[in-house]
Specification:
The complex is a heterodimer of chains A (467) and B (525). Chain A has 14 helices and 15 strands. Chain A is α/β, with parallel strands linked by helices. Chain A folds into 3 domains: 57 residues, no CATH class; 108 residues, Aspartate Aminotransferase, domain 1, CATH 3.90.1150; 267 residues, Type I PLP-dependent aspartate aminotransferase-like (Major domain) (Aspartate Aminotransferase, domain 2). By secondary structure, chain B is of the alpha/beta class. Chain B folds into 4 domains: 61 residues, no CATH class; 220 residues, Type I PLP-dependent aspartate aminotransferase-like (Major domain) (Aspartate Aminotransferase, domain 2); 114 residues, Aspartate Aminotransferase, domain 1, CATH 3.90.1150.10; 27 residues, no CATH class. Chain B is built from 17 helices and 11 strands. The chains are: A alpha/beta (467), B alpha/beta (525). Chains A and B meet through α1, α2, α3, α4 and α5 of A and α1, α2, α3, α4 and α5 of B.
């Protein structure tokens, strides 16, 4: 039985007097009578092996902060890790808005009581639409990899075909997520083929693409920028080839690049997707990832989105904005297993946050931040490539991330990065295991949070480590 | 305003700012924030940076984002917040199946403000994230104890995602045993629709069981449905009606006997915390929604976490990486050749896991049971009172106790007055309460409404809620049109349905709204 001496600040009716009064209203004295429908043999007996509660708030905070204090973090350690989770500037207003209790604790409810939530989410989609120059955007994918996977499945539904072609330079996480999503019971639901590529540039081998494209091809996927940072500079041609065979051209992009980088639709993409974590969301050990998918307004595409879409509609009051769920029966809330795919709770608070971010930056801010990232990352790459035994793996232009090869230094990435860590630096992601053809290489990420002095510090440290 | 009023109704009016779309606030040249620029020496070294982009990939026209000053942006979002009835400002008894539990502020203040979480990169070396790995490892042990299962994964980004992952595990398990011919899953109509949709996405055929006269899934139908094609069962208990299926272990045995696996959707676990577990019922897999049962906030629809539990027999198939501990140090283990791989990047929604860890630690075993007891007590109290409201009926399970939520019906109200559940649902917002949950589709219970007064709500909250429902029922009998035209005190007025799915009118973004000529139509009235 519960210990009557314990108090529960979050459980008002645990108060003995109230509980007794409510039980009395039900004609009961023992609260366990409430569970009478659960048969005895299905009840849990005894006491669970859980720790003694840390009941008071102060002690709880001490305990958890004590654990978090064991972590090192990118505020105190110079960080060059990215690989799809880059360290970006988070405007204070983003944290202010997503910390508002009204938005933080709202959920799936409809538009009268939660009008503001719907407007904030509609504005997010609208901003993303401007950034992507496409008319329809969904921001409710679990992360960028899920967005790619669902974009590819959308392509199979649109075309009625079941083969997709993907680049070899996808990150292993993304590839695992895609593969799991395309598998079937027995035979695969969608066949995933990997495109050949040129190891010197990272770019897709166009002749291999031409060979693989056929009447069964639902989609060709390109990442721009790629997981390894470089631009797929042949994207226009790849898109042309894909479309010529009736395949969708799916492009995964980095939204923070789109002030300077053309949105995918400008070079032929029919479906754009990606992760909007860069837009005003903290690293959170990967807890801030969130995916989007965009298309134009053609109903052939709109009807294939799997998640809720919020539409702007009039109310009975002239001139008043209202919202509604558009084409609800697409979703599994509307039609269970007949839905396009399953849907559910995802990342709406991050969508609201990204909306705030894009409103704050505006067109000029997006251009500037894109340019700053290009400049800082080029500066870092140039300085690193000038070190003895270090070279850039690809000559291809890049955004934010780039692959550095250490083969000529005779050193292992793991060893170099262990030394950097001692200097208070997280070196880039070691991709030697993931892509053996790259040799001893690491993926370095440099964003607008990096200052010249930070890069100079990296170079000094590397100089010492490599000499 | 006197606190003790003769009736519990609030004279409420929600904020109605008539706030512009942010595009309408745009003034060319205004800025909301300035961003860091490259230093002079950097620019001297690399030039403008963007010339490196090939011509056909360079953006020509800047994106047509709004240009708004920071004070106006903050005001805009503060107003939108005020036009949102989160659980912090209303007793959210309404959103049943969602367990709208109070989210303790201390958790948020740690998770959103401590750089040891907010500024941690997921690919940092293991020795630099020991604190986070410790939290995940210990939370896994907690949930094993609470469910009785042997392992947990925190990769799924929500409940539906966990169901999908469970389906992927079933798929891998049967394939590994050379039984890929098992291509059917069985679920029930009162289980969340993701239990049908997510396995379908994984490639399964779906068989859906309907309730028998007691409101529980029909055991005879289950026996008829299982075969050598059965991969598994996906089921909730108590189901979304609040009815606990007392023979759940028999259902599990039927599926096991046919060679299938059983996955327990524990979205409704708040009813049975510390009282009953997946293990005793015989389940192989389960999932908890940490953003529901374990108090992490719902975030307007995420970020969320569907913590996935499995028996030892299914551990090899769980997503990678797994978190290990040698007694001293925590590490990530990727070496599981039978694993389904991944369903989400990195380590999942770590902040959500931290909040669940905090909640369990603060409550302990007794506190978990207290939460279950008070949530079931609240629901029984609410049920007893709501059943006396004119127009309310309670289908199924007459004379039985339901657990933490109840699916009622306004069928009689509709027959008597023409006012249906969607009308009442709109009107309820006029009293400062969140719209209630009707039911997932299809509506098996006619004119449904489903309420879940979890342990966060006081007797006064329940009385207020009951008073509001009674008031609306009285209004329906006195003046049905009044209820049908609600809301009146909300941020906006009633939305007519005729344009919502009209391809010529659908406007999912502002640019689409402009393109389709909505703005002109609005000004013409």
């Amino acid at each position: 039985m519960p210990n009557p001496s314990r108090s529960y600040p979050y459980i008002p009716n645990a108060t003995a007097r109230v509980k007794a009064e409510m039980l009395a209203r039900l004609g009961l004295t023992d609260p366990m009578t409430l569970f009478q429908e659960i048969p005895e043999h299905l009840r849990f007996k005894g006491c669970m092996d859980l720790p003694e509660p840390v009941a008071d708030e102060y002690s709880l905070r001490r305990h958890i902060e004590g654990l978090l204090n064991q972590n090192r973090h990118c505020g105190q350690t110079l960080n060059f890790l990215g690989a799809g989770c880059a360290h970006h500037f988070v405007p204070a207003v983003c944290d202010e808005v997503n910390g508002r209790g009204e938005l933080l604790t709202a959920y799936a409810a409809e538009f009268y009581a939660d009008h503001g939530k719907w407007q904030a989410l509609f504005e997010f989609s609208s901003h993303m639409a401007e950034l992507l120059d496409m008319d329809v955007v969904s921001g409710f994918l679990y992360d960028g990899a899920q967005a790619v996977a669902t974009a590819l499945r959308m392509a199979t539904r649109i075309t009625g075909r079941r083969k997709v072609l993907v680049p070899a330079t996808l990150g292993s996480q993304t590839r695992m997520i895609i593969d799991n999503y395309m598998r079937g019971v027995g035979a695969a639901q969608v066949e995933v083929q990997t495109l050949g590529f040129d190891p010197a540039s990272g770019l897709i081998d166009l002749s291999d693409l031409a060979d693989r494209l056929d009447e069964e091809t639902a989609a060709v996927l390109v990442e721009n920028p790629s997981y390894l940072g470089f631009f797929e500079t042949q994207a226009t041609e790849i898109g042309r080839l894909a479309r010529r065979h009736g395949a969708e051209f799916v492009v995964s992009t980095d939204p923070i690049a789109l002030g300077v980088l053309a949105p995918p639709v400008h070079y032929g993409a029919t479906i754009a997707c990606g992760d909007y974590h860069p837009l005003g969301i903290h690293l959170q050990c990967g807890g801030g990832q969130a995916g989007f998918i965009a298309t134009d307004g053609d109903m052939r595409y709109v009807t294939q989105f799997k998640d809720k879409l919020y539409g702007l509609v009039p109310t009975v009051q002239p001139g008043e904005y209202g919202f509604a769920n558009v084409l609800f029966d697409r979703t599994s809330f509307g039609s269970r297993e007949k839905a396009k795919e399953f849907t559910g709770t995802s990342n709406a608070l991050w969508a609201i946050t990204a909306g705030v971010y894009l409103a704050l930056l505006g067109p000029a801010g997006m251009q500037e931040i894109g340019q700053t990232i290009m400049q800082m990352s080029q500066y870092a790459a140039g300085r690193m490539a000038a070190l003895p035994g270090v070279r850039l793996a690809f000559a291809t232009p890049f955004f934010k991330e780039f692959v550095v090869n250490f083969d000529d230094s005779g050193r292992q990435v793991a060893e170099i990065h262990a030394a950097l860590l001692r200097d208070g630096i997280f070196g880039g992601v070691d991709v030697s295991g993931q892509f053996p053809w790259l040799g001893q290489s690491a993926l370095y990420c440099v964003t607008e949070v990096m200052r010249q002095a930070d890069i100079d510090r990296l170079i000094d440290s590397l100089n010492r480590v490599l000499s | 305003m006197a606190r003790r009023r003769p009736d519990p109704l609030r004279r409420f009016h929600q904020a109605r700012w008539d706030e512009e779309m942010i595009y309408e606030l745009s003034v060319p040249g205004q800025r909301g924030v300035l961003v860091p620029r490259a230093e002079k020496a950097v620019v001297e070294a690399v030039g403008d940076g963007v010339s490196a982009i090939p011509d056909d990939l360079r953006r020509v026209r800047p994106p047509a984002l709004p240009e708004v000053s920071q004070p106006r942006i903050v005001r805009h979002y503060a107003r939108l917040s005020q036009e949102t009835l989160g659980a912090d400002i209303t007793p959210d008894i309404s959103m049943a199946t969602c367990t709208m539990k109070y989210s303790p502020k201390v958790q948020e203040h740690i998770a959103a403000r401590h750089p040891g979480l907010t500024e941690v990169h997921p690919l940092q070396p293991g020795e630099t994230i020991q604190g986070i790995l410790a939290i995940l490892y210990r939370l896994e042990r907690f949930l094993c104890e609470i469910s009785g299962l042997d392992h947990f994964s925190f990769q799924p980004g929500g409940g539906a995602h966990a169901i999908f992952t469970n389906a992927a595990i079933m798929r891998a398990y049967h394939a590994a045993r050379g039984e890929a011919g098992r291509d059917e899953i069985i679920t029930t109509i009162f289980s969340h629709p993701a239990n049908a949709a997510a396995p379908a996405t994984a490639g399964y055929k779906v068989i859906t069981l309907l309730p028998d006269e007691h409101g529980v899934p029909d055991l005879k139908a289950l026996k008829a449905a299982v075969s050598e094609r059965t991969a598994g069962l996906f089921i909730t208990n108590p189901e979304d009606t609040g009815i606990y299926n007392p023979h759940i272990d028999a259902y599990v045995q039927v599926v096991h006997a046919a060679g299938g696996l059983c996955a327990y959707d524990q979205a409704n676990a708040n009813a049975v915390l510390g009282i009953a577990r997946a293990r005793e019922c015989g389940f192989d897999l389960c999932h908890f929604n940490l953003h529901k049962t374990f108090s992490a906030p719902h975030g307007s629809m995420g970020p969320a976490l569907g913590a996935l539990g499995a028996t030892a027999a299914l551990e090899p198939f769980l997503p990678v990486p797994r978190i290990t501990c040698d007694g001293q140090r925590y590490a990530l283990d990727h070496d599981h050749p039978l694993s389904i791989g991944r369903v989400r990047s990195f380590l999942g929604n770590v902040p959500v896991a931290l909040k669940a860890y905090a909640w369990i630690l603060q409550h302990g075993f007794e506190g978990l049971r207290e939460a279950a007891i008070c949530s079931v007590l609240n629901s029984n109290y609410l049920e007893a009172e709501v059943c006396h409201i004119p127009g309310v009926t309670l289908p199924y399970a007459r004379g039985q106790r339901r657990l933490e939520q109840v699916r009622f019906s306004w069928e009689k109200l509709r027959e008597d007055t023409g006012v249906g559940t969607e009308d009442v649902k709109r009107r309820i917002a006029d009293f400062g309460l969140q719209h209630y949950w009707t039911s997932h589709h299809p509506w098996v219970v006619p004119e449904p409404f489903t309420l879940e007064p979890c342990e966060s709500y006081s007797k006064e909250d329940l009385d207020e809620y009951i008073g509001v429902l009674r008031q609306i029922a009285n209004e329906a009998y006195a003046d049905p049109e009044f209820v049908k035209n609600a809301p009146y005190n909300s941020s906006i007025h009633r939305v007519p349905e005729q344009f919502v799915d009209d391809p010529d009118r659908i406007a999912i973004t502002w640019r689409q709204y402009l393109k389709k000529g909505w703005a002109q139509r609005q000004t013409q009235g």
